[in-house]
Design brief:
Shape: globular
Number of helices: 6
Largest sheet: 5 strands, mixed
Number of strands: 10
Structural class: alpha/beta
Oligomer: single chain
Distance between the termini: 17 Å
């Protein structure tokens, strides 16, 4: 089985693949202070509960694929693969890894690994042109051409960041639960803030995607818009431009990149 690990700024998502099927997944907080040994204990605790895996760390795992937006965590995960999975092929997404997606950016090394991995999965699953909207710590919009090239994107503050900023900077405001309000016009402060977040971000998605689609294709209707990320369900029912929702897009992309590189290891 293949273990995939997507390290984001806020959360780390792990997925376990049996062939092309994701059979288990976990979400944990990202902590840059965790050492390789602490990460290994955490992995053993999570995977030790799965009936298809053995009691020892690494039992049943025959491949690992990792991408990270946090360099310090990537460093520790590299040590985990060396010390605890020494006999298991491991692919860490970094410069030099074969993805199959050309990166048409001024400096390709600036692009987050997760964004490239999302593009890989989008091309494989839906073809191009496509736009991937990833609702994470930041809300990112990534464009893929009809020829399967990563052409660029947009980065906006994420939903949780915006909620925290409102609570910190508003004298009479506070942190709120991320939930849909009863109506657009809030009847109290909490509902008014929830409305601003849910419908404000839905409007942002519609506006940004429509502008990107006009630049990306002669006919904007040809562009497939894919939503992913932990907070995507917050706006799925409100944003009008989203065609597909694939919560495991990054993990699927990691599986694809692993398959394209494992023969080179």
């Amino acid at each position: 089985m293949l273990l995939t690990i997507d390290v984001g700024n806020t959360h780390t998502v792990l997925g376990l693949f049996d062939g092309e099927e994701i059979i288990e997944h976990w979400r944990i907080s990202t902590d840059a202070r965790r050492t390789a040994d602490e990460l290994a204990v955490l992995l053993q605790g999570l995977m030790g509960m799965h009936p298809l895996l053995g009691d020892e760390l690494g039992d049943g795992i025959d491949g690992i694929a990792i991408c990270s937006t946090v360099p310090s965590v990537l460093h520790e995960l590299r040590e985990v693969t060396r010390r605890y999975y020494g006999d298991v092929p491991a692919v860490l997404v970094e410069p030099g890894i074969k993805t199959g997606v050309p990166i048409l950016m001024d400096n390709p090394k600036e692009v987050g690994a997760d964004r490239i991995i999302n593009a890989v999965a989008a091309v494989e699953m839906f073809g191009g042109p496509a736009i991937v909207v990833d609702f994470g710590t930041a809300t990112t919009f990534d464009a893929v051409s009809a020829r399967g090239e990563y052409t660029g994107g947009v980065i906006a503050p994420g939903i949780e960041i915006s909620v925290e900023a409102l609570g910190m900077r508003g004298a009479q405001l506070r942190k709120i639960e991320l939930a849909r309000p009863r109506s657009v016009i809030g009847k109290n402060t909490v509902e008014a803030m929830q409305s601003g977040i849910v419908y404000g971000f839905a409007g942002q998605v519609d506006g940004v995607v429509n502008r990107m689609a006009r630049e990306l294709a002669d006919d904007p209707d040809d562009v497939t818009v894919i939503a992913t990320g932990g907070l995507a369900p917050m706006v799925l029912g409100e944003a009008t431009v989203i065609d597909e929702h694939e919560p495991w897009l990054t993990l699927i992309g990691l599986r694809l990149v692993y398959e394209r590189n494992v023969s080179r290891l």
